[in-house]
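Figure 2 data, in text form.
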Amino acid sequence: MTAGEGQPKQQGPAQDAPAGQAQPAEAGAPSSRNPAQKAQAGSGPAGNQPAQGQGGGQPAPQGKGGEKPAGAGLAAQPAQQQPAPQAQGADGPQGGQKPAAQKQPARPAQAQPGAGGGQKKPAAGPGAQGQAKPKPPAVQQNKPLVKQAPTPAKIPQQPQPTPQPRVPTARAKRRHWMLMFSFILFVVLPSALAFAYLYVQAADRFASHAAFSVHKEDSTSSFEMMSGLSALGVSSGTTPDADILYQFIQSQKMVEAVDAQVDLRNAFGRHYKADPVFSIAPDANLEDMVEYWERIVALVFDADIGLISMEVTAFTPTEAQRIAEIILQESSTLIQRLSKIARDDTIRLAQEELDIASARLKDVRLQMAEFRDIEQIVDPTADIAGQMGVISALQQSLAEAMIRRDLLIGTTRAGDPRIIQAEREIEAIRRRIEDERTKVGSREEESADDLARVVGDYESLVVDREFAEQSYIAALAAYDSAVAEARRKSRYLAVHIEPTLAETAIYPRRLTLGLLFSGFTFMVWMLVVLTLYSIRDRR
């Protein structure tokens, strides 16, 4: 038994090693490290405390000035991670002994003074400042040592993120409260009042519907047919009657006509105290009635096909239907009056044209009669034809006389009296032909007895007479057509939807009007708020 074995087992309180150094190993524990590592581990984390070997208990070498050798702290960590072998005594390892199963941290044992060669104090030096006092060497015991738990490896610390500045908590400010107050005052409150008025104060209104068109019969007059104006595409232009009727229904004349049969001020002013928005004042003037008329009568005009759809609203269904019927009656009267005016104009124009043609024909006939009285010729063309017959006969006689003369000249001598007689006959015939031609017309100057002048005047009168006769025939046909058109109704109001009688009130449209009013107030409020905020941001 060595000196270390005879010492009683004493254990002192565990002392904490300095920061950054490993815990000291149990005294007498064998290690598989090489001698260099053993020499480095002998310095221990507890300062310059010598480690007890296998039977000698010699202290490990100490660096200069009490400093630990280089790498002592680094070598201690691998030594702790190695599993501890079985404890050995001074004479060698103990047979049959196994290491303890429990893993407990090794604690340095305190030995009594004088055992194991004593304890050497470290020399004071600059490297020994700030270190703990060396612990006494642990006494080797003949028992298994507890396996030292390995020190966990250090985990590299992640870089901490840069702390962001803390956002202050949003709080309602004075302008926010003012904004909310203005929204309630200018949007919510007016909208609530509008809905309350529409559902509480507004009176129900009934609607009556009607639809009609203006029918026109297109007919071509006899004058256009005979003169060919219709074939050439020439026709009289007219203004569509539907456009005229559309303007007439919205005019003051229609309001006066309806007010004469239905008291509009009484019909639409009885709810004025409870519902002044959709009613009219009982003492309203005519201009106010015309302005209010557009609110109770709605027209939809289709210009392509000429159809007019009408909707009349009133506080009772019978009044709405009655007003629609009066409008249709007045419209029909207007169309009939326009048609009558057109017929009268057509007849008047046809009559005027007929009178003109008749007067022209009479004048031409009077001129023809005067011409016959003056010239004493019924038909100058017949006289000129007879005169031309005489000239033709004379020319034939002249030809025969000339032939007889030529025969005598060939058979008789030159001074034969028969030849002289033939020449006289020929000369007489020629003078007669010249006289007859002079009656027809003179080349040198005009004579009152020239048939050519008479025939010319007569032909001019004949042309005037023929034109006057044709004009008279056309005017007479146009007049007959105008009279025929006047006997029938060429324009009339065709009603294809009679005024209806309502059973349920559909006006006012409370939800639609309320939403429109709310949207309008909201848009106005938003526009004002955005403008004010824009001015505030520019400052």
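Caption note: The two ends are 100 Å apart (CA to CA).
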